[in-house]
Structure formats: C-alpha cells, structure tokens
Amino acid sequence: MPQFVRRAQPPLNFIPTAYNPLIMRLVKWTLPFLLRFRIRPWLPAGIQRIEVDNVERLVELYEQFEAGKARFIIAPRHVEVDDPLSGLYLCSTAVAKAAAAKGIRLKQPVHTHFLYERGMTIWAGKGLGWLLSRIGGSPIRRGRKPDWVGLKAARKIMTDADMPMVVAPKGATNGYSERLGQLEPGVAQLSFWCAEDLHRNQRQESVFIAPIGLQYRYVTSSWPRLAALLSKLETQSGLPPLPTDSAPIEKHCYLRILRLGEHLIKTMELFYARFHHKTFETPKLEDADSSYEYCAERLQQLLDKSLQVAEQFFNLPSKGTLVDRCRRLEETSWNCIYREDLPELSTLSPLERGLADWAAQEASVRELHMRIVESFVAVDGQYLAGKPSFERCAETTLLMSDMLARLDGDKLPGRPRLGLRWVKMTVQPPIEVTSRLADYQQGRRAGRAAVGVLTEEIRQSLEATIER
C-alpha cells in the first residue's frame, strides 16, 4: 500500500546557507567513494569515470571572478539524482586540476554555492538540509510562485558571495540523458537581477551564464540485467512471460518494454475510469503514424486525467503544461501538510489537531497522482522508437520501475543498478548578460521577453551538447 503522510507537519522553514570549507574538504575527500558506491537506496551512483570537455572555459571564469572582473552562474543539465556528484567533481577536481596545469592559483577548495529544492529534505531527511547548508546550498520552493525568501537569498549570493552560483535551469530531473526537458526562467532572471544590482552599485563586473551539458552512458550494455529487471516488473504487473524466440536479446527486451508500457497504460486507464470516473477516448490506431504514437497519445491523456483527479480535489485549474500543473499541485499539497497558517502544533486542541492530520492525509493521497505523472512528463513513443539503444531502453524501464515502486509503497524508490556508468560533461561558451541589461529594463513586458530570449539561448546551448 502506498505510504502517505499521517500527521500535519511544521512549516518548511528556510535553511540559511552556512558554508564551512572544512566540511567541503571532507566531502571532496570522500567524492571517489560517493561516485562509485551506493550510499542511499535512491542514489544509484556506480559512476566509473567522468570526462569534461572545454573545462578551461570555467577556469577562465573562475579567474575573472576572483579578480573581481566577473560574476557568473553555472547552468547544468539536470538528468538524474546523481548529477550533484558529477557537478561536485567538475568544480572541486576538474577545474582545480586544469587551473593548476595552467599555473593559475584559485582559492581552495574550488567550489560554488547552489540552489536546491526545499523538498529534498522531506524525502532524504533533515540531515541532508544540514549538510547542503554547510557545503553552500540555498533552498528554493519550486512550486511557490514566487518564493521570495529563497529568491532574495539567491539574489544576494549571486551578487555578493565569494563563490559563483549553480542553478539547474531544468529545475527537476526527467530521467532521459538524450532529451532536454522544459527549462524554467530562473537562471536568466537571476542573471539579470545580478547585472541590475551591480549596475545600481556602480560595480564593473560582467555577468555570464556557463551552460554545462551532462550525459550518462553505460560502460557495457548489460542486456541480461535489463531482462532480469523486466521479468521482475512483469511479475509485479501481473504480466505472463513473453515467450522467447530466436530474436536477439536486444530486440526481445525492446518488445517487452513496449508490451509492459502498454499494459501499465491500460491498467491505469481502468483504475481511473472505475474509481475516479474518468472517461478515456481511445485514439484510432489508423490515425496514428505508428503504434508508438498511438501509445504516446494514450499516455498523455492518462497523465492529464491523473492530474485532474488531484486538481479537482484541490479546486485548481487544469491549465498550463504538465510540469506547471505538477508544481502547482505540489505547492498546494504542501500547504495542507506543512502548516504555516497554524501555531505550534503541540498547542492545538485534540479536535484541531485531528482535523489538521486529516487534511494532511488527504493531501498526501492526492499528491501521489502528481508524483506518478512527474515521472513520465518526458516520455513519448518516439524517444524509444527512434533509437532503441541500451541507454534509452534502460531509462524507460527504470521510469516504469519507479512508478511500480511508488504504487507498492516506496516514497522514494531505490533504483536498480544496471551496470557501471561514465559521464560526459561539456562546458559550453559562456553567455554574456550585462550587455542585455538595457533591453531587460525597458519595462515589464520587455523584461519578460528578455528573460525568454536568454532562456531559449541557454536551451539551445544545452541541446547542442546532447549526443544522440
């Protein structure tokens, strides 16, 4: 049975940054171990090596930063929960080594401040909040529009801190190494704010954005491991084994993934039709370009109906992209669970506490609909059909594994490991922001347009790093 919050919780208070270089050095010392071995069920790790292209671009930015000539924000892709470990390696090891090779002396340890999603401490524990604070992290409530406390702290760090800033423009993971998800405007907005603050204070530093591509690959294509995982998922889903034939194991796994995906869609459609009274229009197979497009249309309809269940409970509109709707639901649910509108929970009467707990339980139940959708917002038939490589097959299977684990009661699913991986990081040419400030300051509409243009430039830069 899925696990839910049973009682109302205290507010998710802001965790101020309390950077400690000694703790950062300790984390850097343990980094090889963290990359290779799994220390938490939800952190697969197993990263054998990391390759960094064009790291000298970051070295130059750090040199200008420490000379008081530039401020910059690093904008990396956000694919999986392992990304922070790769980012830590980039700054603390790759940049430090490249700078030393050039005879450039940078402050040690080479590091950054960074934004992290405040909800991480919910599923990973309060200890993570303490650690992230000590290694330069500053929290943000991604569903709160706007989270002025988090944004004000980030703006201050961006303008005045003695380390640069890291913000993932994607905001959340999508699980696909070869597909870039929807970007959010936060990186562009923070950059313009920084340029604006520097100009107001008559400071001469230039502001840059450094897009960082990140892509995972398996060292070896372990199809037998993937086949074993598919067998487990088929058993969980009530699917009989697919008879083997003379086809190669790669094709057999691919067909099993398609069959499992279609079975999950059909099962979830029946669930929402029976228990939530949703009506599904089955697209005509002959109207689709392929069976993949047929399944993709059914999946998108299923995700929409799933979100509607939660939105109707919270009386929210069903508007915007799936990502926008997920963020709106997350924030509304948290407002019912982490109660900022109540005094100390211990001072409530039994009646008041009982009602608060009831509201939290119901919100937690509805939030599960959103969590399932969140795992599949980037999924469509074309990703797998266009190139059924081991990486793409593994990524799609792991997303289905996450879903089944959540339905089975895992609040934070532990991902099966399908083999050791290597990571390629690509430092793209820095995007200069200061010269665009005049356009940004032409008024509210012009400011939004400037943010949009800059966000699109970041997207194009990150897109160029993806090897398909």
Can you describe what's shown?
With 468 residues, the chain is α/β, with parallel strands linked by helices. It has 16 helices and eight strands. Strands 1, 2, 3, 4, 5, 6, 7 and 8 form an eight-stranded mixed sheet that branches. Helix 1 packs across helix 3 and helix 7 (186-200) packs across helix 16 (444-463). The longest helix is centred in the middle third of the chain and has 27 residues, at 249-275. The mean pLDDT is 90.
The span between the termini is: 39 Å
Percent of residues in β-strands = 5-15%
Instruction: Estimate the helix proportion, in percent.
Output: 40-55%
Write down how many β-strands occur, each being a DSSP E stretch of 2 or more residues.
8
Poorly predicted parts: none
Let me know the average pLDDT: 90
Class computed from helices, strands and strand pairing: alpha/beta
Global shape: globular
Computed over alpha carbons, the radius of gyration is 23 Å
How many individual helices?
A: 16
Biggest β-sheet strands, sense, barrel: 8 strands, mixed
Order of helices and strands: HEHEHEHHEHEHEHHHHHHHEEHH
Short description:
The chain has 468 residues and is of the alpha/beta class.
Set down the secondary structure blueprint.
Layout: H1 21-36, E1 47-53, H2 56-66, E2 70-76, H3 83-101, E3 113-117, H4 120-124, H5 126-134, E4 137-140, H6 148-160, E5 165-166, H7 186-200, E6 206-218, H8 223-237, H9 249-275, H10 291-314, H11 322-337, H12 350-374, H13 381-386, H14 390-407, E7 421-427, E8 431-432, H15 437-440, H16 444-463
Parallel strand pairs: 1-7, 2-5, 2-6, 3-4, 3-5
Antiparallel strand pairs: 6-7, 6-8
Helix pairs in contact: 1-3, 6-7, 7-16, 8-9, 8-14, 9-10, 9-14, 10-11, 10-12, 11-12
